[in-house]
Design brief:
By secondary structure, this protein is of the alpha+beta class. The chain has 4 domains: 12-59, no CATH class; 75-126, no CATH class; 133-194, no CATH class; 204-304, no CATH class. The protein is built from 9 helices and 15 strands. Helix 8 runs antiparallel to helix 9. The chain is globular. The two termini are 44 Å apart. Residues 131-138 have low confidence and may be disordered.
Length: 306
């Protein structure tokens, strides 16, 4: 790749990143070509170890290479990583179960006991091997017990797993109000009840921009009851700056929840890691999806209020 030298050329950042020069302009900002001395040691994955980034990212010690926690692995790189882990564990990689869309793409893995379908991230990072059925039931029982330990659920409340596309939720059947609701486990473990008993009034959808300096690197969408506090909580658990890009209000909670589910199922999500965005990283997506999210919100009756 061709580059032009300037005052940053030759400077070293984060101990392993050497600036070679700038390559192109994005708006009024220069994109710099850097070389990572660590990634260059693995040419099968990274070639010569060359990457592009901005000066603002370098100043914050953000690593745009394979050493960084938010590096976007290509399909060919993921195949190399999967095969390496498969050799280590003595299993076989048969291919992807679905079109490749990053770390949440499911693999087809095989061993003497049969096939199973972990995500790329789970298999490569955790060495996830086929689950034992008995252990799965025990894990569910332990999770449900945590819900009851909050002390807010009636002892006859029924919990069951609920799958929506490729994401798992929990269905809650309440014997008190005779209403069923769908929720995520972390909300249930906080004692939030997705039924009439819980006064579940989540009627706001929001879009927050995640900025690295002045560069919009991701957006966070979601629903909330406290539209003014949500951004404050998220800002406490991220290395980036969070700014509000809009809030939409609905006439009822069902439309609000439905809009979020459509966003989760139709967009590539989780582009930031838990380490980068601790509160709701699974609902982070690329900036170019803003217009799609706004359309989904408005199709379900959301009205922008700010």
């Amino acid at each position: 790749m061709e580059y032009n030298e300037d005052h940053l050329s030759g400077r070293v950042f984060a101990e392993t990143l050497t600036v070679l020069g700038w390559t192109r302009m994005v708006g009024s900002r220069r994109k710099y070509l850097i070389k990572c001395s660590e990634c260059a040691k693995d040419p099968e994955l990274f070639g010569e170890g060359l990457f592009e980034t901005s000066k603002e990212s370098l100043d914050r010690n953000y690593k745009p290479c394979g050493c960084g926690s938010s590096y976007r692995w290509s399909e060919s790189q993921s195949i190399v990583r999967i095969n390496r882990k498969a050799v280590e564990l003595g299993v076989q990689f048969l291919g992807f179960r679905e079109p490749y869309e990053g770390g949440k793409t499911r693999c087809i893995m095989s061993c003497d006991e049969g096939e199973w379908f972990p995500t790329v991230n789970n298999f490569v990072r955790k060495g996830q091997i086929k689950f034992n059925r008995g252990k799965t039931r025990l894990d569910d029982a332990e999770i449900i017990q945590k819900f009851f330990d909050t002390g807010v659920f009636h002892e006859d409340t029924k919990f069951s797993r609920y799958r929506h596309y490729d994401k798992w939720y929990w269905r809650v059947d309440c014997p008190v109000c005779n209403e069923s609701g769908i929720s995520q486990p972390q909300h249930l473990q906080r004692g939030c009840r997705p039924c009439k008993c819980g006064n579940y009034k989540q009627k706001f959808s929001y879009i927050h921009g995640v900025f690295d300096g002045n560069e919009l690197i991701a957006i966070k969408f979601g629903i909330t009851r406290a539209k003014d506090l949500r951004i404050k909580y998220q800002s406490r658990k991220t290395i980036y700056e969070v700014r509000s890009l809009g809030v939409w209000e609905y006439n009822d909670k069902f439309s609000c929840v439905a809009a979020e589910r459509i966003c989760c199922s139709s967009l590539i999500c989780g582009i930031l890691t838990k380490e980068e965005f601790g509160d709701g990283y699974t609902e982070t997506t690329y900036p170019y999806n803003i217009e799609r999210i706004v359309k989904i919100y408005e199709d379900y009756g959301g009205i922008k209020i700010e």
